[in-house]
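TA notes, week 10

Several of you asked for a full example with nothing omitted. So below is the full record: structure tokens for the whole chain, then the designed sequence directly under it. When grading your own attempts, check the secondary structure regions first.
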């Protein structure tokens, strides 16, 4: 009565349909919206137990509890797991550490692990569905170490999933010849702080990686129950037609061609500037052109037409406004990188670039930290600029700029001036200005709309808004 396939089967073969959740007409169609129905026709024959009148979410634990008390069942969790597909047999897969003795599968002793693949020049499939190991008779024939009987090695190999499931552990200690990973190093580095991968990656590879990691945790090889602290899915880059890139649609963008035309930094920067990391977004070659122009403006800030340090780059002290903008930029870029908001970090660097372009003199105390901020986004351009500024070694070895919190707060504030709730002007004033001074200046700015009238009311939200009601 409450499953469409069961109902269709019963209806076709004229089987009785018994309603157990009220809320629909089960003689006409299956009632599957069980979340809003109530249980009916659900009691023991002697009436000693009934769940009639309950909603299904209440009925399920009630039945489970009753069965447990009757000694007829216990609560359990069933996982809908499917067999791991090992059909793709390749030579380079991990061989099963199993030998066959008189038709019985026996594990090889632990001291013989790991089981190393035999050397061969024949990597071709066996033709029987078995791995190429089935062709290596000298390797196949062996002896069971516990009984001394003749044995034959298992020829199955694990797919690439197996070997690629614990690479993050091996990265910690890649040259260790006696352990999977040194436990001291593992405790220091694990778990992985951030994993970036597509959503399809999470339900395939990461599922297996977590499985292997939990096995290793259970046997005491690793110290953390989970391998990854945070997972972020990067969004798909669509074609310029807003469709998923496909050869059949002819909308595939070749990154090599883009790099040849615009340079690696421009393509890299544009990919980060397109929008939020997790969002699906369309490719735009015009967008790459825009980012290229930004990099050219940055270059012209520092380098003259002869390829030398521009005379506008000076060692004099920066103005207070420029210092404040620099520290605001350091703060914004630093925090946005931590939050993976690369597009807004780049926007802030564009703001600083525009302001410095207007300046006749560009203090080193502003330019040099700015180039350091640019380095993770456009490493090649930043490296060249670092050299033009006269510094060695590589910019990648320099410390990250630190912002002064006191310098990130502006000493001036812009207050919108409204007349009857409509924006009419904006007033820029010092932070410490009084309400009286704000109102006096606002009357001057809004004189055109006040037309000599005395406001009935003045609404002032400190340092945020002033509204004349007339």
């Amino acid at each position: 009565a409450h499953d469409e396939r069961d109902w269709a089967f019963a209806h076709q073969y004229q089987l009785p349909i018994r309603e157990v959740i009220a809320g629909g007409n089960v003689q006409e169609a299956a009632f599957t919206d069980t979340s809003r129905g109530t249980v009916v026709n659900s009691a023991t024959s002697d009436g000693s137990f009934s769940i009639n009148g309950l909603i299904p979410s209440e009925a399920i634990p009630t039945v489970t509890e009753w069965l447990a008390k009757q000694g007829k069942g216990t609560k359990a969790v069933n996982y809908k797991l499917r067999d791991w597909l090992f059909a793709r047999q390749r030579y380079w897969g991990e061989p099963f550490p199993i030998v066959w003795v008189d038709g019985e599968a026996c594990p090889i002793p632990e001291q013989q692990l790991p089981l190393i693949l035999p050397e061969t020049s024949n990597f071709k499939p066996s033709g029987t569905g078995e791995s190429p190991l089935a062709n290596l008779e000298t390797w196949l024939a062996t002896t069971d170490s516990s009984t001394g009987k003749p044995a034959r090695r298992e020829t199955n190999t694990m797919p690439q999933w197996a070997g690629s499931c614990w690479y993050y552990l091996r990265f910690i200690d890649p040259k260790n010849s006696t352990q999977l990973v040194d436990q001291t190093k593992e405790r220091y580095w694990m778990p992985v702080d951030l994993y970036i991968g597509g959503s399809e990656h999470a339900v395939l590879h990461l599922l297996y990686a977590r499985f292997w990691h939990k096995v290793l945790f259970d046997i005491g090889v690793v110290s953390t129950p989970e391998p990854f602290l945070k997972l972020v899915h990067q969004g798909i880059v669509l074609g310029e037609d807003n469709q998923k890139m496909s050869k059949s649609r002819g909308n595939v963008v070749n990154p090599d061609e883009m790099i040849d035309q615009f340079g690696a930094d421009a393509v890299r920067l544009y990919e980060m500037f397109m929008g939020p990391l997790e969002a699906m977004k369309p490719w735009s070659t015009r967008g790459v052109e825009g980012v290229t122009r930004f990099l050219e403006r940055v270059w012209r800030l520092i380098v003259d037409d002869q390829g030398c340090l521009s005379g506008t780059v000076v060692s004099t002290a920066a103005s207070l406004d420029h210092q404040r903008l620099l520290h605001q930029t350091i703060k914004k870029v630093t925090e946005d990188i931590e939050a993976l908001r690369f597009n807004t970090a780049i926007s802030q660097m564009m703001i600083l670039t525009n302001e410095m372009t207007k300046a006749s003199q560009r203090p080193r105390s502003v330019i040099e930290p700015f180039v350091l901020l640019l380095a993770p986004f456009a490493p090649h351009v930043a490296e060249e600029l670092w050299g033009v500024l006269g510094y060695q070694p590589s910019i990648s070895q320099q410390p990250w700029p630190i912002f002064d919190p006191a310098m990130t707060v502006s000493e001036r504030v812009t207050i919108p001036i409204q007349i009857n709730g409509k924006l009419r002007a904006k007033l820029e004033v010092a932070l410490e200005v009084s309400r009286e001074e704000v109102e006096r200046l606002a009357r001057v700015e809004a004189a055109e709309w006040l037309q000599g009238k005395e406001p009935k009311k003045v609404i002032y939200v400190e340092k945020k808004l002033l509204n004349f009601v007339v």
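The chain has six domains: 4-70, 98-158, 161-233, 237-283, 291-406, 412-469. Use that as a sanity check on your answer.
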